[in-house]
Amino acid sequence: MPLPKISTPTYELVLPSTNKKVKYRPFLVKEEKILIMALESEDQKQITNAIKTVLADCILTRGIKVDKMATFDIEYLFLNVRGKSVGETVEVNVTCPDDGKTTVEMEIDIDSIKIQKDPNHSNIIKLDNDLSIQMNYPSLNQFIETNFDLSDTKNQVDQSLHVIMSCINQVYNSEESWSAAECTKKELKDFVESMNSKQFKEVETFFETMPKLSHKVKVTNPETKVESEVVIEGLASFFS
User: Fold this and answer.
1) Which residues have CB under 8 Å from 122's CB, separation 6+?
2) CA 27, 31, 32, 36: dihedral to nearest 10 degrees?
3) Which of 11, 53, 134, 174 fits 169 for a cystine, CB–CB 3.0-4.6 Å?
């Protein structure tokens, strides 16, 4: 007689980028092993790929493609999957800003960690009085592809251009529009490189003000007794 199947609870959350509900389940032992092995490797690309694999297994809503999800949706969803899987709190090491070296271990309720949205953020960028760009948010695949060495200045510039090109959805003016999907890489590169400094800064602002996983905590330095406010951002910060 075969062993009985263990029932797994399901949960729902709303994706920050689309406000659509997604049904998911906690990860199982076999998936936790994938994550542990990736974390032990300390390889960012391997860790990111493990998160992608686990989420693909845990998302129950049809039509949701992890490859196409915005990075902040990935972070928010994974944090909640992790919370339902191994505990409703996460321990983080916070560096006290008053001396920049003393660390304090803190426990944070996962439900209190939210995606913060800049009220001035927009995915529509006006280049001039007539021409505008509609942007897409970077996907997980684009995040993996652009995991580059920040010490390499030339590579950093090339990768920045690549991210911008890959996130353009369409270019349009009052009379017509051009879909990025129908443009060649050379056409997109030439278009981005033809921007002036002010226009390029507007594009950079889109990425700088994107919604992000963020949580504010108050920490007291045990050495100096100074209390400071610290903002923790990004999924990696919640697994320090």
Assistant:
1) 206
2) -150
3) 134
Contact by Cβ (8 Å): 94, 106: yes
Cα separation, 12 vs 232, in Å, equals 25
- Residues 10, 111: contact at Cβ < 8 Å? no
Half-sphere exposure of 34 (CA within 13 A, CB side): 16
Domain limits, the chain: 8-87, 89-109+215-240, 124-208
Q: Are 58 and 81 in contact (CB under 8 A)?
A: yes
Architecture of domain 8-87: 2-Layer Sandwich (3.30)
What is the reported pTM? 0.81
